[in-house]
Predict the 3D structure of the following.
Amino acid sequence: MTAAARETRLQRAGVGRRLRGLRQRSHLSMRELARRSGVAVSYVSGLEAGRFSATLATLRRLLLALGSDIGPFFADALPVPAGGVFRRSQMRIAADAGRQYTFVLPARADIGLVMLDEELFPGEKPGYESLPGDIAGYVLRGELLLDVKGEPPQILQAGDAFYVPAGVPLRGRCRGEESVRLVTSQLRGRKDPARGARP
């Protein structure tokens, strides 16, 4: 087994263990998590066992169904910086074949925004996701195909921005052969649509 294959297996196992722990702390069965996220229960089982690796888009759908998000999930990778200035060297990055996220703001209880520097690569076709907080984005490069459920899809280019209220299903993907880069900010949700108000 190559070093890269071992690293991938360890990463899968680490993500699977953390996902299982979060699911159990939320008192959800695999079947209920699958239902809330729209992900097959066999896939959830495979992720938790470390047999499968999740795309960032799928992992985010699972985490949103658990009342969390991708930023807090990867928060243990680096120490959480204090204060209000965040250096590039302190920012976490998560990537897969379809996208890359740079977590611009740390996952801290006193910060009410999730801010991502995103790069979406050609070929990915993500499913819809309903976010628990309002989201806004600004396209820096490339063309973004923004699909908000119930509205005609929109093509956004560099310099265009968008806003979508909490709970409205949306998906974005790269349009064309060039990757698209954008910055998004999401208000931390006050409610979990699947379970009602947060404590």
Q: What stands out?
A: The chain has two domains: 3-54, 82-197. Helices lie at 3-25, 30-37, 41-49, 56-65, 70-73. Residues 7 and 128 are 30 Å apart (CA to CA).
